[in-house]
Amino acid sequence: MTAVLLAAVVVLVITVAVLAWQLRQSKEPTQAAVRPETATTGRILFPFSAPGPTASALDVALRLARAESETLVPVFLARVALHLQLGVPLPRQSRVALPLQEAIEHRAAAFGVPVESRIERGRSYRHALRRTIEHERFDRVVVAAASDSGGGFDAEDVAWLLRNAPGEILVLRPAETSD
User: Fold this and answer.
1) Of 152, 78, 72, 132, which is closest to residue 105 (Cα–Cα)?
2) DSSP letters along 71-123, please?
3) Do residues 149 and 142 make contact, with C-beta atoms less than 8 angstroms apart?
4) Are 53 and 144 in contact (CB under 8 A)?
5) Confidence grade of residue 53 (pLDDT, cut at 50, 70, 90)
6) Under a CB-based contact definition with an 8 Å cutoff, are residues 65 and 73 in contact?
7) CA distance 79 to 98
8) Pairwise CA distance, residues 32 & 84, whole Å
9) pTM of the model
10) Which residues, 6+ apart, have CB-to-CB distance to 97 below 8 Å?
């Protein structure tokens, strides 16, 4: 009889311990409860070309994407010479684009921002941008204006973008550097 009583007490103690552990787990905030993963609702188009986006423009796009729970869509604009077919492989441009996109994805991971990278071809940067606007879904466009150090879009391309692209457009002019 004592063996049966002892077994019943052991089962009771184990049951109480399991129930107490489950109750404690339900009261502790989980990582998901502290920072819930939300589905992204919008998309920020971030077109750039060689030599790559400016760090300040990328950081602004990433901060905006994080604040608004949006996906960043960095699009490398690849120029294709007129004597080539538009669909021809571009190994030299790919060697430039892929490391840049990988760097953007690493930076976005640090911000906790989802990324959907693209490469768009065109006869000019504006043509590639037009093709991107025609088939990509986005809510905002973030572009860097041209600077003396290279990169960015010149005034004519920015004006074209403002006239032709739907949604919000954010143009970042680089700060002047003092010599």
Assistant:
1) 72
2) EEEEEEEEE--TTS-TTS--HHHHHHHHHHHHHHHHHHHHHT--B--EEEEES
3) no
4) yes
5) confident
6) no
7) 15
8) 51
9) 0.73
10) 50, 76, 78, 119
Q: How far is CA 72 from CA 14, 20, 137, 161, 173, in A?
A: 50, 44, 11, 18, 20
Cα(73)–Cα(138) distance, rounded to whole angstroms? 8
Query: What is the C-alpha to C-alpha distance for residues 108 and 168, in angstroms, rounded to an integer?
Result: 21
Which residue type does 18 have?
V
Show the tokens assigned to 157: 């391309």
Give the Cα separation of 159 and 153 in Å (integer): 10
For the stretch 72-84, pLDDT in tens is 999 999 999 999 9
The total of other beta-carbon atoms located within 10 Å of residue 71's CB is 18
Name the nearest CA neighbour of 135 among 125, 120, 122: 120
Which residues 6+ apart lie within 8 Å of 32 measured at CB? Answer: none
- Sign of torsion over alpha carbons 62, 120, 136, 155: positive
Helical residues (DSSP H) of 118-154, grouped into ranges: 125-135
Instruction: Report the SS3 class of residue 42.
Output: strand
